[in-house]
Amino acid sequence: xxxxxxxxxxxxxxxxxxxxxxxxLAAVLLSLQTVLLVYLGPLALAGAMxxxxxxxxxxxxxxxxFLGIPDADTSLAVLPAxxxxxxxxxxxxxxxxxLGSACAMIIAVPLSMLCLFLLPTLQSYFDWWIGILLIAxxxxxxxxxxxxxxxxxxFIVSGILGIFTLHYGFxxxxxxxxxxxxxxxxxxxxxxxxxxxxxxxGVLPAQNSCGIRMExxxxxxxxxxxxxxxxxxxxxxxxSTASANGVLASVIGYxxxxxxxxxxxxxxxxxxxxxxxxxxxxxSRVRNGVMAALSELPLPSMSELTVTGVxxxxxxxxxxxxxxRSAHQLSDFDGLLLNRAxxxxxxxxxxxxxxxxxxxxxxxxxxxxxxxxxxxVPRMYCMGAIMLPVMLYSFGMAWx
Length: 400
What we know:
- By secondary structure, the chain is an all-alpha fold.
- It has one domain (2-394).
- It is 72% helix and 0% strand.
- It is globular.
């Protein structure tokens, strides 16, 4: 049980602190493995890493909702969650996110077992269709947009920025978060600082506590959609939860039904973390920094790690709901002062983790992220920063 307790604590810390991911903590734990292996042993250390990953997918809804700071896995979900916060419904948004993650664990665990036994033999066939799926999804979103020209332009420009960022990411510092660290300034600029710069001024509105206002059938439908999307991006190579968010936006629409989109995207985030374990055991493919760290350790069985993840999810749900009850304390904060403090923190964190190149990407991404606001186009088309590189990768253009 020590690994569950340690993992839940670490995942809660990484979830609450903006810009810090469970991948970061996994890298830290791995760097200290000489000491930790003596006290914990390899099996407990591996369990703690996976428990921290699952816990993080629950708790990271809190800074996204109340501060408007995106995580690399939930960048689009931040926009409707923060919008609900500005309406005084921040606690509800966090509870919806936690519910989505909890439902995902219920659905994703049996799906993981199914994928483990059925999909490896069909893997090469599925890999080829990833790019086709993404092209169809983004094509539908652009064609149905109120301003298709601007939507296409924003998608392409953000995609070029994403290709540039990933191709030259070796220029950034990699102190803790590994190779994925450069995604932090990219997505934070597109979906974080650009939002804070245009956010309303004044104090945050009083936060109300009125439960979750969603019909049961909507919860079931969006949980299933989000989980399936999360399982898909967690199993297939080159994809991320950010890609799933973009696909879900074409099905649900984050600007039309905030609550449904929050639930679906957080379900996808948690399902992605869960299915990544099955992909690791079945295909020896690393889907995130935690799996990369686990590959360096003697591992327990998949069933043992799965049980650890489920128990961590139970604890994480209770912690997230409990933390959401403190939302009313934010009503006295000045919005302008809070936004400025958050932006300063983001810049300092990017400078520390990614260096001058990260700051350059942050500035470029912020400039691109302001365009949708200026031309009144949904910011979801900035997901080209992730989706376009993935499309090219799926067609064998690994040079991006």
